[in-house]
Amino acid sequence: MSQTQNRVDAAGLAALKGRRIALFGAGNMGGAMLRGWLAAGFRGSDILVVDPNPSNDTLSELADAGGRHVQSPEPGDVAEFVILAVKPQILDSILPMVGMMTGTSSTIISVAAGKALATFTGGFDGCAVVRAMPNLPALIGRGLTGAYANDTVNLHQKLAADVLLSVLGKVVWLDREAEIDALTAISGSGPAYLFFLAECLKEAGTDLGLSSELAGVLARQTIIGAAAMLDQSSEEPQDLRKKVTSPGGTTQAALDVLMRQNGMRELLSQAVAAAHARSLALAASA
Fold first, then answer.
1. What CATH topology corresponds to 188-285?
2. Is residue 86 marked as binding?
3. What is the pLDDT of residues 98-134, one digit of tens each?
4. Three-state SS for 142?
5. Model pTM greater than 0.85?
6. Strands (E), 143-201
7. For the chain, where do the domains classified as CATH 1.10.3730.10 start and end?
C-alpha cells in the first residue's frame, strides 16, 4: 500500500495542463472533485461535465472557470481522463457514453460504490481503469480515498489519477481490489462510527445533568480536538491514549469499563466485520 497527502503541487498541475478531463456526475462527490480541481488551479477549459441536471451553483462555477457542460457527450468529446462519479445503479446505463469518450490512451476513474473492475469488460477490454472509494469527509477535502488500478494502468496514468483524487484528501493505493471491501468497513463506514460516538457522549452528558446544548458542544469539540491531535502527531493512538490516562484517575475508571471483556474493542470488531460482510454481499449482487 502507498499513500499521498491532499496536496496538488505545481508538477502535478503542469502534468495535467491541456489534458481533457470528463466528469460524469456533478452531485455530492463529483461536485466536490470539481470544486477541488478548480481551487487547486486546474484549468476550467480542460474540464467537461456530463450531467443531465447539475445544480445551478455547479453550472455557475464551471462557466466562470471556462469549463463546459453537456447532458450527453457529442462526437469528438474524447477525454484522457474520464471520472465516473455517478450512483452505482446507473453506471451500467452510461457505459455506452463512456465508451464514446475513451480512446486508447484514456484512463477511467470510477468512484461508483460497489462496482468492481469487472464492470468494465467487453468494449473496455484493455482500458486503463482505476477503482476508487472515497469516504464522506472527502466532501470537504479531508477524506480518505482507497484506489486500485488494473494492470493496464501505467505509472504516468497512476500518478495522474493520484493528482485528480488527491483534492478529496489522502489517497491510499491498494495492492488487491479485494481490499476495497475492508477499506469500506473501516474508512468508508468509519465516519458514522465517530458520529455515533459523538451522539453517545452527548447522551452521557445529559445523563449527568448537563444541558443538551452544552453536552453537544463538549462531545463534538472533544472528538474534533482528538482527531486534530491524531492528524498532527506521529505518535500511535495508544500512546496518545496513555498520555490522557493517569493511574487510578477518572480516565482509567472509564477505560476499565470500555476495555473490559466484551467491551468496546470486541463490539467495534464485530461492527466492522458486519460492515465488511455486507460490502462483500453488495459487491456480489452489483
1. ProC C-terminal domain-like fold (1.10.3730)
2. yes
3. 999 998 899 999 999 889 998 887 778 788 999 999 9
4. coil
5. yes
6. 143-149, 169-173
7. 188-285
Look at residue 281 and tell me whether its pLDDT is greater than 60: yes
User: Per-residue pLDDT averaged across 43-70, rounded?
Assistant: 95
For residue 277, what are the contacts with CB-CB under 8 A and spacing of at least 6? Answer: none
Strand 2-4 relative to strand 21-24, pairing: unpaired
Picking from 28, 88, 21, 9, the residue whose alpha carbon sits closest to that of residue 50 is 21
One CATH from 3.90.25.10, 3.40.50.720, 3.40.309.10, 3.40.640.10 for 2-177: 3.40.50.720
Residues 42, 43, 48, CA angle at the centre, nearest 5°?
100
pLDDT, tens digit, 9 for 90 and up, residues 194-216: 999 999 999 999 999 999 999 99
Long-range contacts of 55-64 (CB under 8 A, 24+ apart): 55/26, 55/31, 58/26, 58/31, 58/34, 61/34, 61/35, 62/34
Rounded Cα distance, 274 and 123, in Å: 36
88 annotated as ligand-binding: yes
Return d(Cα 167, Cα 170) in angstroms, integer.
8
